User: Fold this.
Amino acid sequence: MERALTANIRSDREPLDIRAYERSGGYAAARDAVLRLTPQEVQALVKESGLRGRGGAGFPTGLKWGFVPMGAGAPHPKYLVVNADEMEPGTFKDRLLMEGDPHQLVEGVILSAYATEADVAYIFLRWAYTLAATRIARAIAEAYAAHYLGTRIFGSGYHLELHLHVSAGRYICGEETALLNALEGKRGNPRAKPPFPAASGLWGKPTVVNNVETICNVPHVVGKGVEWFKKASLTEEGGTKLYGASGRVKRPGIWELPMGTPLREILEEHAGGMQDGARFRGALPGGASTDFLVEDHLDVPMDFESVQKAGSRLGTGTVIVLDDRTCPVGMVRNLEEFFAQESCGWCTPCWAGLHWVADVLRDLEEGTGQPGDLDRLSAHARLLGPGHTYCALAPGAAEPLQSALKYFRDDFERHIREHRCPWH
Amino acid sequence: MATIFIDDRPHDVHDGVNLLHACLTLGLNLPYFCWHPAMGSVGACRQCAVKQFHDEKDTHGRIIMACMTPAAPGTRISIDDADAREFRASVAEWLMVHHPHDCPVCDEGGECHLQDMTVMNGHAYRRYRGVKRTFVNQNLGSFVNQEMNRCIQCYRCVRFYRDYAGGRDFDAFFLRDRVFFGRHEDGTLESEFSGNLVEVCPTGVFTDKTLARHFTRKWDERTAPSVCVHCGIGCNTIPGERYGVLRRIRARFHGEVNGYFLCDRGRYGYAFVNSDRRVRSPFVRGALAGTTTCRVAVERAASFLAEGTRAIGIGSPRASLEANFALRALVGPDRFYSGIAEGEHALVSAILRVLQDGPVRSASLHDVEMSDAVLVLGEDVTHTAPMLALALRQSVRRQPMEIADRLQIPEWDDAAVRTAVQGAKGPLFIASVASTRLDDVATATFHGAPDDLARLGLDVAHALDSHAPAAGARTPAGAALVEQIARALRDAQHPLVVAGTGTGSEAAVEAAANIAWALHAAGRPANLAFVVPECNTLGAALLGERGFESAVEAVARGEADTLVVLENDLYRRCEEALVRRALGGVAHLIVIDHVMTPTMAHADVGLSAGTFAEGDGTFVNNEGRAQRYFQVFEPTDDVRESWRWIRDLMIAAGRSEAGAWYTLDDIAAALASGVPGLAAIRDVAPPATFRIAGLKVAREAHRYSGRTAMDANVTVHEPKPPDDPDSALSFTMEGYDGQPPPALTLRYWAPGWNSVQAINHYQTEVGGPLRGGDPGRRLIEPGTASSPYFDRVPPRFEPRPDEWLCVPLHHIFGSEELSALAPGIAERVLRASVALCTDDLRRVGVVDGGEVTVTIGGGSHGLVAREVASMPTGVAGVLVGVPSTPWLALPARGRIVPREAPR
Assistant:
C-alpha cells in the first residue's frame, strides 16, 4: 500500500531535517518543477491528477488554481495561503503532517506557489499547534538557508517568501475568507463570494488558499506522476487520504489509506473495531460539520462522491464514532454549543439561530424539553441551510443536527417524554 | 435599464443595481437591516431574502439575499414565495430572541425600523424560552445614548462610524450573539458625525441623548422642512417641536447637499432655540418691566427713525435673505451693510466674483463626493464646514473604485469593494495651517502660513497653465509636491479645489480660483467649493456690498444717528473698541435678535426675533443655493420674524411700501424684483397659496396625540389653530399628510414605514434625488468662458524672532455662535487658546497648557497655550469664536509672552 504523505513520519523520532528529507527524495519534485516546468505545466499536472481539496469541501485543486490570473497582466503580489487552522472537532490529520514532516509541507508550498506564480506564501497555523509551529519554523529556516525559499530559489528566476503566521485562535478562521481577514489583522469574519480569493483575496490580491493535506499531496503528484496518483486510490478520486477515527473504538488514530477505503475497513481493521461493550450507532465521517452515517453506510467508500451519495460529506475524513453508551442528543448538543460559541457574530441565522439550537438541546438534556422542540430543531436545520447564511459555518452545524434528527429521532423524543436524558 | 421579473411581473430597473435597491425603488416592501443606501450592501442580516429562479421553467428556485445579488437582465425573483417569507420571518424571530420588549419606554419606539420590519415579517409570537443576553452600556458623551441590549448586530453603526466617517474610537468587539458596538472604554465619541448613529441604527441602541432630556414621540412632534443655521453648507433638516420646545433635529435628505447625514454641530446645536438667553419679548430701555408691548416697542423704534432720516442698517449673515432685504429697504441700499466683518466681507466678495464672473462652477456636496482629485487650500473643513469634510472623505474612494470595476465588483458590494481596494485612496491634498482631521485620508499635506498656502496654490495653477502667475522659488521637495498636485488634478475626471474664508486669506481664494481656471482652460471639468462661515453669508453679501467696518466708519463720520442691527452681535465682528465707538456714535440703537447678545444689551429698543424654528425665510449656502426654511411652530410670547418687525417699523414710520408685505411671499417677490440676481428666490419653494387637493400640508402627523387635551390646564376650549399666511403648511393635523413636493417635505412616513427609512419612498431612485427634484435654486452659475488670472503674489512668510503671525483656528464646537448656546455642545467647547509648535512654545517660554498674553494691535488677551506640533514656526493659531476669546482681526502679527502670575 502506498504511503506517500506519511512515508517519512515516525512517532518515535523528530521529523526529518532538510538533509534527511532530501535524502529520502525530498525537494526533487520542487527543484525539477521550478527549473524545468512552467507554472502552467505544474497546474496541468495537478488538474489532470484530479486532486481534490482535503480541507473538507473537496473542490478540485487544479480548477481552483486555474482561476488565478496568470502571466504579465496579472496583479502582484499574488499569495498562496496554507490553511493550517485545523479546528474541526475530531480532526487532527494536518497536525500529523505538520509535526511529522514539515519539509513536505514547505515543498508543497513551493510547488503550489510556483504553479500560481505566487510571490508570497503564508502558513496560517492554529494557535494550539505549538509543536507544529516550532517544527515548521525550523523547516522554513532550513529551506531559506538552502535557498529553496527567498530569491532565485533552486537557482531559478523564481522568488518566494514564506511566512508562518500563528493564529489568535478561532474556529471561523478556518473558513478561507475569514482566515484572510484575520491574516490582514481584521476581525475574523468571512467575506462574501464572489469575488473569490483567486480574484480578490489577501490584501485584495489574487490568492489561493489550500489545506495542509492538499498542499502535501502536490509534491507527490508532481514527483511521482499523475498515473501514480490515480492508482494510489481505490476509486475515481486519486491519491491517498489521511483517515482518522475517534470515539469508543479500540485503537483511535490516523492512517494514510487509499482514497475510497470503505468506512468499515477504517473502523474495523485500522481502528480495531468497537470497544468491548460498545455498539456502533453512527459516525460523523469527516469532522463535526458532516451528517451522521449509520450502520447501513458502513460499506460506503470514503471518497467525496460516495459519501455525498450516502447523504453526508467526506469532510476531513476523520471519523467520529457514536456508540450506544453515548447520548446522541448530548453529542449533538456538544457540537452545537461549539458552533454557537464559534459563530463570528456576522449573520443573523448563525449567531442567533445556533444559539437557539444549543439552548433547545440543553433543555432536552436537562429534561426541560417540550413538545414542539423537535420541530424547532428541524426548522433550524432547514433554515440554516446553504445559501441562507454568509458562510458555511451554520450550514455545517446543521448537518449533524439534521441527520441526528433523522437517525436518532426516538432518542430525541425520549428526552422530551421522560423529561430527562436516558443516558444519565 | 434591465427588465427583471418579480413574482412574475416584469419591471424595468437600472442595470447593475442590487435587487434590494431595485425592489425598494419600485416601492415593494422587502425588509432589510444592514444595507444602507449610502453605505451599500454587506449581506450580514439576511433579512432581504428572496427566492431566485433560474428561468421560467425553474419552479424550485433558491433563497438569495436581494442586497447581494445584481439585477441582471432577465433576473426572476419572488418576494412572495412561501420559503422566502418563512426565512424572512425567521430572521425577525431570531433578532427578537435577544431584543428587549421595551418598546413603550424606548426612545426609538414608533420610529423604529426593527418594529416596522418585525411587523412586516408577521412575527408576533415568541417561541424562544431562554433568557436574553445583556450588556453593560457605556457613557458615550453628551450626544448619543447607548442601550446595547437592543442591538441586532446589523453592523451599520460601525460601518458608518469607521468606514464612512473615518472615526477610530468605535468598533465591534467580541463575537457570536454578544458582539458589542462601542468604544474600548466609556468616553465621548470623538467623531464629529457621531449623531448619525442615531439615524443609522435601525433600532434603539443609539438614541439622541439631547432628545431624551425633553422626550417626545415622533408622531407628537410638529415638524417643518428646515435648513441648518450652524455653518455655510446649508444641510437640510427636520426640526421637531412640542409644547413650544424644540425637541431635536433630524437629517432631511437632500441629494445635492447633505444626503442622509448631518454633523454633530448641526444636529445638536438646536437647543439654543430653547435657551434662557432667548429674548422672548421686545424691550425699551428704561421702560418699566412688563410694560413694553409690541406696539410700544415698534412705535418707540419708529420714532428714532422719524427723528432723523439718517439710519444705518447692519444686516446679518445668520438672518434670512428676507430679513436682510427688509432692513435694506428700511435704511436704503446705500446705507445697508452686510454685517460681515470687513476682512471676511472682502473674502466673501472675492468668492462671489470668482463664482459669478469666472468659468468654473461651485460644487455641491454631492459633486464633492464624486470628485476624484481634490486640493484643499487653507481650509480646515472639519471645523468650518463639517459635512464638507465628510464629503471629501467619500471623494477619496472615487479613483480607487477603478480597482473594483476591473474585478467587476459592483460599487454597492461594500465589503468586497473595501477588500479589493484595501484602503487605497484617491488624490486628496491638504494645504492648511496645521494638521487637520482629514489628514488620515490625504495623499500629502502641506502646512504653512496662509500666504504660503496661497503661494503653493499659485504654483500649482502655474504648473497647470504657464499663463497663470507663479509664486516660484521652491525647494526641490516643494516643487515635487506642486508637480504631484498639478498632475493629480490634471489627470482627474472631476477635479475639485476647496478654499474658503477660514484662514482669512484672500490670496488663497484667488489661488484656488487660478487653479480651477487653469484646469478649466485645459479642458478639465473642474469644480470649486468655497467654505463660508455662516448659513446666509453669501446671501448677506449678495445684498450688501459693504462690510461691517464701513458701517462703523460711517457712524464715526457722523453719517448716522440711528443704528438698526439685525440678528447680529457686533462684538463677534470687530474689535471691541470699534464697536464701542460705533454704539457711542449713534443716538439710538435698535437691535432685532433672538438671543440676548452683548450688542443687544446696549439696545434702546430690542425686538424679539424668531429663530429659524419660529419663522420662515431663505438662506443662500456656500454653493450659491437658495433654500427655504419653514417655521416649525408658532412661538408664544412676542416673538416674530425679523422681517415682520422691520415691516411694522416701516409702517409705523410712515413707509407705506412695507404695507404690501403681508406674507413671506410678498417680501420674497419684492426681493426678487428689487435685487438683481435674486429673481429665482420665488421658485425656491411652493408659495403659501400652494395646495394639494385643496389642502395645506399638515405640520402635525395624523397620529399627533393630545391636541384637545394639551392646553386643557389653561382652557378646555380647543383654541383656533394658528394661521400660517407664509407657507403652504398648516400648524395642525388638518391638511395633507401624503407626499408633498420635496421643498415641503416635513416628515418621512409611508404605510408600514415609520422610521427614517421611509425616505426610500420619497426618492425617484433609492439613494437618488427626491421625487420632484432636490429642493432649492442655485443662484450663481459660471459667467464667462474664461477669466483673467489673479496676479497678486503674496510674499513668502518669514518668521520673526519676537513676533508671531496669529491666524484663526476653528473648532466645530464653539467657533459658531448659536450652537455654543446648546448645553450638549457647550460641554464640548474648548478653552480659549493659542496653538504653537513645540519650538515656539519653548521660545515663548511656556509649556502646553500654560497661560500666555497675546498682544495684537493695541489689545492684550489672556489665552492658554496649546502645543500643536504641526503649526508652522512663527505662526500662532488662535481659536476663534469660543466664548472667552475676543474678536481679533486675523491674520495679524502679535506678540506672545508668558502670563505673569497674579501677585
Observations:
- The radius of gyration of chain A is 22 Å.
- Chain A touches chain B at residues 170, 187, 191-192, 194-195, 199-200, 203-204, 340-349, 351-356, 359, 363, 370, 372, 376, 379, 383, 387-390 (CB under 8 Å).
